[in-house]
Amino acid sequence: MNKLNEKIKKSLSNKKIKPRWYFTAIIILKDAGLVLLLVAAILSLGIITYIITQNNPWEFLPSGFKFFARGLSALPWELIGLLVLIIIAIYFLIKKVHFFYRLNNLIIISAIMFITLGGYFIADAAGLNKKIFNSAPIRPFHKNQGKFLFPNRGPRIWGEIKDIKNSKIIVEDERGKEWNVEYSGNTQFYQTDDLEIGDNVTIVGEKKDGNVNAYGIKETDDSRQRIKGQKSGPKR
Amino acid sequence: MTNYSDEELAQKTTKDQNAFNPLVGKYSEKIRAYIARVIGNWDEAEDLTQDVFMKAYENINSFNPKLKFSSWLYRIAHNESVNFIKKHYRFKKVEFKEEIKNKSVIEKSALEKILDRDDARMINQALYQLKTSDRDILELYYFEGRKYLEIADILEIPVNSVGPKIKRAKDKLKKIIKEKNE
Hints:
- The complex is a heterodimer of chains A (about 240) and B (about 180).
- Chain A is α/β, with parallel strands linked by helices.
- Helices cover about 50% and strands about 20% of the residues of chain A.
- Chain A has helices spanning about 5-15, 20-55, 65-75, 75-95, 105-125, 130-135, 140-145, 220-225; strands at about 155-165, 170-175, 180, 190, 200-210, 210-220.
- Chain A has a five-stranded mixed beta barrel.
- In chain A, a hairpin with a 2-residue loop joins strand 1 (about 155-165) and strand 2.
- The interface between A and B is medium-sized, with 25 and 32 residues.
C-alpha cells in the first residue's frame, strides 16, 4: 500500500458519513424551490400580461423614436426583469436537480417557457388570474402598473374635459380629481379634430407636480369610463 | 470485495467502511495525476486528492448509482481543482511543470506514447496556455480517455456540447502550437 493510500485511509477513520435523510431533505428542498419558482414565474407573467392589456402604453402613442422610447419606458420593466431573473434561477436549479444538466440548454429553456406559458393559460382559463390580481398581496404590484422606475409614465388619465385654455386642458378623472394637461406641437391627437368641454379623453403622458405633459390625447367613448369604474354614468 | 463493481462498493460503504478501501486503492493515483495536471502542482495535488476522498466518503449517501462512480469522483476532483485554481491562481496562469510529467506514477497518455518526448513536452506546455476549462476537457478526453457522457457528468454540461467544446479547445491548442513553431 502506498503512502497516499495510507494517508487517505487514516484521514477517513475520523470522518462520518452524512446520513441519507440529509441528502433526501436537500433534494426535497430543491424540488420545492423549483415548484415555487415556477409558480412565481406563472404569477409574474399573469401580472405583466394583465398590466399591459389593461394599460397598453402603445395603444395610441405617436410614431417616432422619441415616442417609441417613451412607450418602452412605460412597460412594467421591473416585473419583466423579475420574470427573467426567476427563469434564470429555474434554469440553474433545474440543471442542479437530478440529471437535467445532460440535456441541451435549448430544451431546458423551451421546457421552462412551455411550463410557464401553459401554467399561465390554465390559470387564466380557470379564472385564477382574476382572483389573484384582485387579492390584497398582489395589489401593490399593479397599483403602479408594475412600474417603479418610471411610475409616472404611460397611459395615466381617463376623464372628462372640464376646461380648455391656450395649450392646457383641465381633465377630471374618474375619481373626481382635476388635472392640468399640457400639450404642444409634439402631442399627438387621435380620433379628434377639436377638443370640447365635456369630451371624454384618455391621456398618455408623464405626470409632474400635479400637471400632465401629454404625449398623446385620444377621445374615448363612454364604455372606457365605465370599465375604469366610474361610479355615476358619464355625462351625455 | 474484488468481485463488486465500483458502484456496488460505493453503496456498500454506507454499511461497511472497509468497502471504500478498494476504491481508494483503485483511484487515488489516477485522481492525483488528474488534479496535478489540472492545477499544475504535484504537492498540492496530494492534499487535494485526500480532500476529494474525504468528501466522497462523507457524501457517499448522495451518490446516485445511475452515475458511474468514477465520473462522480472525478466531478468532485474537478470541483476541488477549480476551487483551488480560483483561490490560488486568480490573476495568473497555471504553469506547466516538467516534474508532473516525469512522475512515474502517471501513466503515459496515448498522446505521449505516439509522440516523441519533445513533441509531448511542447503539447504539455501549450496545454497550460489554455484556459482551465479548455485544458480540463482535453485532459478528460485525451489523457483520461473518458467518454462524452462521462465528461458531461463530470463537468455537469449537456452531452451534446462536449464534442464542440473539445473541438474548440483543440483548435485553440493547435493555434498556440502553431504560434510556438513560427
